[in-house]
């Protein structure tokens, strides 16, 4: 079994929060579920940049931490749907603030990203 070389500091609120919702697509998954997109394949269509496997892995982590609840119908093919728990819904105001910050600063970030990509293409 894997053992961490360094102990995690879960006495820091930021580290606790990042433990639960860090991951490239977790906040997007939470947003999708909040908007009524509840099946993994639908979430994958909504977040096309992520693979279905990654979506399912991050849903499993969100489920483990109690952010989402999983409802499964015993049919073939298996049908799973996710919904936000009370803990998951408590993230929505934070998600809204992050979205607003991103929209307010999108032009600047896009400009800097373009510069970064241009510099990466220049020979060293």
What can you see in these coordinates?
Helix content is 57%, strand content 10%. It is mainly α and 124 residues long. The protein has a domain at 13-90: Arc Repressor Mutant, subunit A (Orthogonal Bundle). A hairpin with a 5-residue loop joins strand 1 and strand 2. Helix 3 (40-46) packs across helix 4 (52-64). The radius of gyration is 18 Å and the shape is globular.
Summarize the structure.
The protein is mainly alpha-helical. It is about 55% helix and about 10% strand.
Question: Which descriptors apply to this entry?
Answer:
two-stranded antiparallel sheet; Arc Repressor Mutant, subunit A; mainly alpha; 7 helices; 10% strand; 2 strands; globular; 124 residues
CATH architecture of the domain at 13-90: Orthogonal Bundle
* Residue-averaged pLDDT: 91
What would you call the structural class?
mainly alpha
Instruction: Please estimate the helix content.
Output: 55-70%
* Topology-level CATH name of the domain at 13-90: Arc Repressor Mutant, subunit A
State the CATH class of the domain at 13-90.
Mainly Alpha
- Secondary structure tally, helices: 7
Query: Looking at the chains present, what oligomeric state does this protein adopt?
Result: single chain
Main sheet: strands, sense, barrel? 2 strands, antiparallel
- Low-pLDDT sequence parts: none
Radius of gyration: 18 Å
| Number of DSSP E strands | 2
| Helix/strand order | HHHHEEHHH
The end-to-end span amounts to 43 Å
Main sheet strand line-up = 1-2
Strand content: 5-15%
């Amino acid at each position: 079994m894997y053992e961490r070389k360094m102990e995690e500091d879960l006495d820091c609120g930021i580290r606790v929060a990042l433990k639960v919702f860090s991951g490239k697509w977790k906040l997007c998954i939470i947003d999708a579920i909040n908007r009524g997109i509840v099946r993994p394949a639908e979430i994958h269509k909504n977040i096309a940049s992520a693979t279905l496997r990654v979506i399912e892995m991050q849903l499993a982590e969100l489920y483990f931490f109690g952010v989402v609840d999983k409802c499964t119908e015993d049919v073939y093919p298996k049908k799973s749907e996710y919904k936000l728990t009370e803990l998951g819904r408590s993230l929505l105001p934070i998600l809204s603030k992050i979205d607003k910050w991103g929209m307010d600063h999108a032009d600047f970030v896009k400009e800097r990203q373009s510069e970064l990509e241009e510099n990466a293409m220049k020979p060293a």
